[in-house]
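F.,

This is the one I mentioned.
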């Protein structure tokens, strides 16, 4: 064989090998063979791997496969499993599953109460014994719909129903769509903790927002084996003696592999779940459980306002488990509930009105990629703000386009797509685009700035157009008395805390990094007297961290970095910043050393063109507190914005321009003269 033939063969082999590993996204739908009804939440796995997905409620799925070699496995409790080659699925999108055959003889043999209680007891012991700790990725999706039942106003000391078009009543409308990704810390079949990765939500106003503020946490707190005061009683929480006392049980069917046991409470107080469980016959492992409760008084819901009330609470919960490395682990949880919400609201025209609405919420948690968790954002936040609330995290952790493009584990249904379009036109989309983080979705009012951050006080992101200002009426910035200051160690009276958030996204073979500089007002405190230098002291410190973040981002943008290299760059940056910060704080002496503050102001100006004016007394006692430079390189113009505060609290803004070049010394004198003439101010530049 000559060299040309060898080279041709080598090239052919390389291209053939690459083609053999080409990934293709396939989409299909799973249905019942006889009824042709869609099978929602059916498991779809790639044979020989741990990769897989799940169908949405319409039975539709999408998964990346090797069309030449992969085989897909479809499994659904109560149905025969089915395997389909990916190449066939490329042509035939519909997968039909056959229901398992059930024999009456098998059912009769095992329909014995004592035997069924024994099965449940053995299953309970397995659940209690399973304490293996695992980590998995978690998709959490939620949708909420609202139906207005009545509106009443007080007229002549009586509540009178408002006469409105009945077409406006009894119509369900979407009010909330929520998607989040987490890392789930698991212990056996239970979820111990959730670590937030990213999330987004679409909201509509139905006279007010309706938010499931802590749904993910509440769902995870449902324990199969431990009593929970927030939910009705579950059979597996009881020993055999208690179980016989409180629950009726019956065998629905036995297919040779699974027992399907139904249960319902003997007491009619609505404090216990009814439902059914699927238990493996050989191992007595729990594979699936459905829990139902109607009009129960045991629930985790609280009205938003004291005058509001919640009643008619119903649950429909389904937990499905699977075998993974010979252990039973969560596969997916479905959490549906409905409530009647009665609110009493003040109005502009009348004193108050009564509104009654029916709220229905459906959510799913899908656990996947066991022992391959997300890399969570590098940031230290406390449980005080983020311990339970999904929305707090959504409003804070920035939207990451690369993450959402590479994570689409559960397809939206056609109905959800329509509702998303409706909410995007008539409601609010939170964290659906770059720069939309920290959106104040809880405070939208006509005329308000919709980009104002819900956590502007706690966690301001560095922004070239905004400066941080201490909230003087907060405990963190309460000025101590002279006696307390004199009796304290000076360094104990203040602490500046800035963090750099690093968000890492693994997309295929690529690793993408985004960073943000964040002023941590929760951990920052300052108990010395606030003066003209204080704001400059805070903001220059903030700017120093932003300068180093930019340098770090440039290093991270090089590409082809490993996680270990990214961590090294990040840790070195933080270590360097701690050194610089310590030097800055020592030199400027909380801003009282004007010479050193001027030096650091020059350092900041050289990098990000920020200058701060302090201690600028005027002939009429005006104080100039902030100055900002904007350099238009193309036009060769520098613009200066000065904000002046008068004793009468009026704000005055001056905008000046100059044709002077950036490196000229004459522009500052020109600006000083212009501002002096317009505001009668004498400016002192630090």
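My design for it:
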């Amino acid at each position: 064989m000559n060299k040309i033939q060898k080279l041709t063969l080598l090239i052919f082999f390389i291209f053939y090998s690459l083609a053999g590993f080409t990934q293709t996204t396939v989409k299909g739908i799973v249905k019942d063979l006889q009824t042709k009804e869609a099978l929602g939440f059916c498991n779809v796995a790639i044979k020989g791997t741990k990769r897989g997905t799940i169908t949405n409620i319409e039975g539709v799925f999408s998964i990346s496969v090797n069309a030449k070699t992969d085989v897909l496995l479809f499994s659904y409790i109560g149905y025969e499993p089915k395997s389909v080659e990916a190449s066939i699925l490329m042509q035939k999108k519909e997968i039909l599953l056959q229901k398992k055959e059930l024999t009456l003889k098998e059912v009769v043999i095992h329909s014995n109460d004592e035997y069924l209680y024994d099965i449940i007891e053995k299953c309970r012991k397995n659940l209690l014994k399973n304490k293996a700790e695992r980590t998995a990725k978690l998709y959490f999706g939620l949708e909420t719909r609202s139906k207005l039942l009545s509106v009443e106003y007080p007229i002549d000391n009586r509540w009178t129903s408002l006469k409105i078009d009945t077409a406006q009543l009894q119509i369900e409308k979407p009010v909330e769509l929520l998607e989040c990704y987490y890392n789930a810390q698991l212990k056996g079949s239970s979820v111990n903790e959730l670590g937030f990765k990213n999330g987004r939500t679409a909201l509509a106003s139905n006279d007010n927002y309706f938010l499931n503020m802590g749904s993910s946490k509440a769902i995870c707190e449902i324990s199969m084996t431990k009593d929970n005061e927030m939910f009705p009683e579950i059979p597996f929480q009881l020993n055999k003696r208690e179980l016989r006392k409180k629950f009726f049980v019956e065998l629905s069917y036995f297919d040779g592999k699974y027992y399907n046991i139904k249960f319902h409470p003997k007491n009619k107080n609505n404090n216990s779940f009814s439902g059914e469980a699927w238990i493996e016959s050989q191992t007595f492992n729990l594979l699936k459980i459905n829990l139902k409760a109607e009009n129960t008084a045991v629930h985790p819901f609280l009205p938003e306002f004291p005058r509001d009330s919640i009643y008619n609470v119903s649950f429909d919960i389904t937990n499905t488990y699977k075998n993974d490395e010979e252990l039973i682990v969560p596969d997916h949880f479905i959490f549906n509930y409905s409530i009647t919400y009665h609110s009493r609201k003040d109005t502009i025209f009348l004193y108050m009105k009564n509104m009654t609405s029916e709220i229905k919420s459906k959510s799913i948690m899908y656990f996947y990629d066991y022992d391959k968790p997300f890399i969570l954002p590098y940031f230290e936040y406390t449980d005080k703000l983020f311990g339970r609330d999904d929305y707090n995290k959504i409003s804070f952790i920035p939207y990451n386009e690369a993450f959402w493009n590479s994570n689409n584990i559960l397809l939206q249904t056609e109905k959800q797509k329509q509702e998303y379009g409706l909410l995007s036109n008539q409601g609010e989309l939170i964290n659906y685009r770059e720069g939309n983080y920290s959106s104040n979705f809880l405070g939208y009012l006509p005329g308000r700035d919709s980009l104002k951050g819900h956590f502007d006080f706690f966690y301001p992101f560095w922004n070239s157009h905004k400066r941080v200002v201490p909230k003087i009426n907060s405990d963190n910035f309460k000025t101590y008395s002279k006696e307390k200051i004199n009796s304290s160690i000076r360094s104990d009276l203040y602490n500046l805390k800035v963090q750099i958030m690093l968000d890492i996204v693994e997309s295929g073979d690529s690793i993408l990094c985004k960073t943000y500089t964040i002023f941590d007002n929760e951990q920052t405190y300052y108990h010395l007297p606030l003066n003209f230098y204080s704001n400059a002291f805070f903001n220059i410190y903030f700017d120093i961290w932003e300068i180093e973040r930019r340098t770090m981002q440039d290093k991270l943008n090089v590409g082809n970095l490993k996680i270990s290299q990214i961590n090294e760059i990040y840790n070195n940056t933080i270590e360097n910043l701690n050194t610089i910060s310590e030097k800055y704080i020592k030199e400027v002496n909380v801003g009282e050393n004007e010479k050193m503050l001027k030096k650091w102001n020059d350092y900041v100006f050289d990098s990000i063109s920020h200058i701060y004016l302090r201690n600028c007394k005027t002939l009429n006692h005006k104080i100039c507190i902030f100055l900002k430079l904007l350099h238009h390189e193309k036009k060769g113009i520098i613009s200066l914005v000065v904000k002046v505060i008068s004793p009468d609290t009026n704000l005055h803004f001056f905008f000046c321009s100059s044709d002077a070049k950036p490196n000229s010394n004459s522009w500052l004198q020109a600006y000083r003269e212009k501002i002096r003439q317009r505001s009668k101010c004498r400016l002192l530049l630090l």
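The chain has four domains: 21-97, 107-310+336-430, 457-608, 613-686.

Talk soon.
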